Amino acid sequence: MRIIKTNDVTEMSRKAANIISAQIILNPKSVLGLATGGSPIGTYKELIQRYKTGDLDFSTITSVNLDEYKGLSGDNNQSYRYFMNHNLFHHVNIHLENTFVPNGTIEDATKACSDFERKIEVVGGIDLQLLGLGHNGHIGFNEPSDSFSKETHCVELTQSTIDANTRFFEKSEDVPKQAYTMGIGTIMKARKILVIVSGEAKADILAQVIQGPITPHVPASILQLHHDVTIIADAAALSKVTL
Ligand code: F6R
Fold this sequence. Notes:
alpha/beta, seven-stranded parallel sheet, three-stranded antiparallel sheet, about 240 residues
């Protein structure tokens, strides 16, 4: 694991955007694995800025997203499709038909998940996967459990994840209870992985991810076994890690 320590979240976002920009420039046909949530917002803003200054071209980029709430359509403003459209896709020249988010409106979970897993294969696999880190160590919506998940699947969200996501909804009852998510196996197949983490609230879990045992009870700890992982974290998030 390559660990890059930054002073704050702004620097974290800029450095993450540097790595994604390099990926896009060096391979304009890259398949980017993208994440939603609070962590990547600053990174997406940086990428939009670089597109506007003419430094980045997304016209031949493909993207696949980690996850989506089951039951929400793309025009629901809490869906992850909506988030991606509004925080990145609508502001750059990526072709929307080359952007893939699991389809939350497909009721048949087996079909929704196998369609998505096949889509990742058809586009050639993920060149660079961007990840945020959940407070409980989840990546995508792979919650702590007794085993590592393999492919894209449907999950019941844990109460801690529902609580963490309540901030985006009017009330906690509105937070969907299920989601479609890439599996740990899907994520581990990405050629490169970039994790962004900020804030003191994630210091304990980040220390477990980096220095603790590899266990499905801390799903992101599996990243210790990936051959090309970069973690960019601010000083607060890294405060419990002895570098
Ligand atoms: C988002 C995702 C989640 C988040 C994680 C951190 O697509 O899959 O794993 O990355 O919950 O969320 P934030 O960044 O909001 O702290």
